[in-house]
């Protein structure tokens, strides 16, 4: 028995040693255009996120040891794929802003930095103060309308012009919400893309919503706040350049805690395809919206910008 243990132990040691030689390459790739942000904002992101979301990964000695290295290397590879601050110049201004929103959302929800990593790497933790610094910076950027929205609008206008020819009257959803063509002139407050279904989304807020963001009155959102979320197919070429494809749908959430009391104070509507076909079989289509938005009920059912004061 003793002999067996000895053999097993030696086998383990040999395995661990030989494992050290199997090292998926993380690669020290070049930094084409590093994130540009105020020094205090950048310092937080460099400290907490750059190990996995940049080409400037700083591995500690204990990260180099197998099997830890396998996991770290895989985090780095996946992390860079979704968000890489070292290729910041490759993103449009709107996408940059969108990625930063997503970053703050991920931190806020406790999803980033990866918990097991922050546990070991104490410098990767993001404190409440750090988060406040990031949010303040982003709120400051809400006013600048990024250049690319102009292009998005131009495309939308074409699509819209076609739809208008077919449809003189604005479509109405089954719960009585009229399509709001003006959303394209609202502020872009976030973008997101879903790898699972290959769409890109832009989230717009009307004046009431933007004012509420600025004044931190977003939980609950004031009556009159409206969000529009438009989705396009996502087209990606071999170089990884991403553009919007065909228009899929636009969704609205209109805040009015009296009129829409039955549906948690929000009027939900979805219009599909450039023809803007109202979604659903009957009024109960809103149950679907609500059930998916329910995890955000402490945030007034809104996903974007989940700021808790
Ligand atoms: C230990 C590595 C690691 C660290 C540190 C880390 N991330 Fe991540 N991050 C990942 C991985 C892996 C993914 C992709 C897997 C997933 O979606 O869960 C990811 C995904 C993301 C995404 C989604 C990107 C997309 O569009 O797919 C965002 C945003 C993000 N991280 C932000 C951050 C921020 C902000 C920080 C710093 C506060 C951070 N991460 C720190 C590994 C890391
Ligand atoms: C499968 C889950 C799911 C369903 C069903 C769903 N949503 Fe959402 N919705 C989301 C997520 C997640 C976001 C956050 C933005 C993103 O990731 O695209 C969102 C965001 C939104 C936004 C932007 C404001 C915000 O909360 O961030 C609007 C407007 C919206 N949804 C409307 C609707 C309407 C109208 C319906 C029903 C017709 C609906 N949603 C059904 C998951 C869902």
TrEMBL record:
Q: Which CDD domains match?
A: cyt_P460_Mc-like
Superkingdom, taxonomy of origin: Bacteria
**Where are the annotated coiled coils located?**
none
Which segments constitute the Haem-binding domain? Answer: 13-142
Q: What InterPro entries has UniProt attached to this entry?
A: Cytochrome_P460 (IPR032033), Cytochrome_P460_sp (IPR038142), Haem-bd (IPR025992)
* Pfam families on file: Cytochrome_P460, Haem_bd
Q: What is this protein called?
A: Heme-binding domain-containing protein
